[in-house]
Amino acid sequence: MTGQVNELSLEDSVRYEWQLDVDGVGESGQLALRNTSVLITRCGGLGGVVALELAAAGVGRLVLAHGGVLKESDLNRQLLARADRVGSPRAECFAERLREFADTIEIEAVCQNISESNVQQLVSRVDMVVDCAPLFEERFLLNDAVVRQKKTMVEAAMFELETHLTTIIPGQTPCLRCLYPDLPKHWTRRFPVFGAVSGSLGCLAAMEVIKVVTGIGVPLAGQLLVGDLRDMTFRKLQPARNVDCRVCAD
After folding, report:
1. Of the four, 35, 73, 164, 178, which is 20 to 30 A from 194 by CA?
2. Is 81 exposed, middle or buried (0-12, 13-18, 19+ CB in 10 A)?
3. Burial environment of residue 99 by CB neighbours within 10 A (0 to 12, 13 to 18, 19 or more)
């Protein structure tokens, strides 16, 4: 964003009038969304829905980090994809779709996945992070960066019909390394999933960002929401913070 926005434009007042009426939001909450920047990585079936819902909510700046090109097998779940763009850089395709949908906010495409060489710089440029990476190597890099920079991160993951969601606030909640001290064995980039599962979780993750930014409701800080869409059951776990965690113990 070019600078802090201090009042809603007439266009924004009309566009967001339905959510302005949500208890606790109002103009101050909408301005908070407008003045917030969020890094989303990656932006496929899960992260793409997060990006779409945050764009719809009026978050002022979205940074989409996703390397590689769009593949035919992505089209079962990546709602920002287009069949005629197969073979094109994913991040650029996703950014174009979001700009068409939400023309008043800033969308930045980063055609890279999270790595040691870019993670600190990308996290430093935003207020919040949503982690949707399929590999724990990327998730751990993001976790370490947000803890170091004291940035809130929404952590979302799914496998088959199961979903996991938590919000990490450095200094207050367990970090990802508290939950998983070591790299999980046998985890691969490709895993079974329906688009409806990643889409459902993406909406919940976007709502976590909205709650943190506007102050409405109670975020999943220090709580892990586990859902099983086979029987539509959900349960909240309260993982303990590891006093000896290699990342957040200090």
Report:
1. 178
2. buried
3. middle
